[in-house]
Amino acid sequence: MTLFETLGSLLIALIVFGGSAYMVRKSMDNDKISTAEQNISTFRLDLKQLYAGEPDFTGITTEIAVKNKIVPDSMLKSSGEIRNAWNGAVTVAEGTDATTFTITQNKVPEYACVKLATFQAGSWETITVNGVEINQASGMVAAITNQLADTNIIVFTSN
User: Fold this and answer.
1) Is 73 buried (19+), middle (13-18) or exposed (0-12) by CB count in 10 A?
2) Could you give the 3-state DSSP secondary structure of residue 106?
3) Interval 9-67: pLDDT, tens
4) For residue 76, what are the CA distances in angstroms to 30, 81, 139?
5) 57 near 99, Cβ under 8 Å?
6) Close Cβ partners of 91 (under 8 Å, ≥ 6 residues apart)
7) What residues does the Type 4 secretion system PilS N-terminal domain cover (predicted)?
8) How many angstroms separate the CA atoms of 13 and 59, rounded?
9) Rounded to whole angstroms, how far apart are CA atoms 141 and 144?
């Protein structure tokens, strides 16, 4: 085997390895998005169920969610903190009026922001990305894209 053949073989091996690493990374990123989507959906339903007998969401807090054990297992850390798939803090609070509550996701990376913010968009009262309310009509993806940063804060408001 000549030097050029050996170098050619090594180059091909590096290209294959690089492509494999990229696909593994993409798969891991997509898995985190799926986990975050499942968690927020479950969390929302559990919060609504917890307050089903109440006239509104007055006094709803992250602490109440933790104490009542309604936080999805993969979000709850041993310290009692609630974290998303990217280790960003997740908080629950009363909305602007007592008939709503918010779930705030911090440290959502740029690659995941649009997918997470548009997840079940029609079932939320409002969605804000980095403090800007996103209209749930057409053009939602473009509106979110205009707000993207390296890490993002998404606030989901439900009733």
Assistant:
1) exposed
2) strand
3) 777 766 766 655 555 555 555 789 999 999 999 999 999 999 999 999 999 999 999 99
4) 21, 6, 34
5) yes
6) 62, 82, 102, 103, 104, 106
7) 32-159
8) 59
9) 5
* Contact (Cβ atoms closer than 8 angstroms) between residue 55 and residue 47: no
- List pLDDT tens digits, range 33-47: 999 999 999 999 999
Give the least confident one: 45-49, 76-80, 81-85, 90-94.
76-80
Residue 2: CB atoms within 10 A of its CB come to 7
What's the predicted TM-score (pTM) here?
0.80
Going along the chain from its start, the domains and CATH numbers come out as 3-158 (3.30.1690.10)
pLDDT of residue 16: 65
Contact 50, 70 (CB under 8 A): yes
| Chain length of the chain | 159
By the 8 A CB rule, do 153 and 130 touch? yes
Q: Long-range contacts for 83-87 (Cβ within 8 Å, ≥24 apart)?
A: 84/36, 84/39, 84/108, 85/32, 85/33, 85/35, 85/36, 85/39, 86/32, 86/36, 86/112, 86/151
pLDDT above 70 covers a percentage of the chain that reads 87
Helix (H, G, I), strand (E, B) or coil at 109: strand
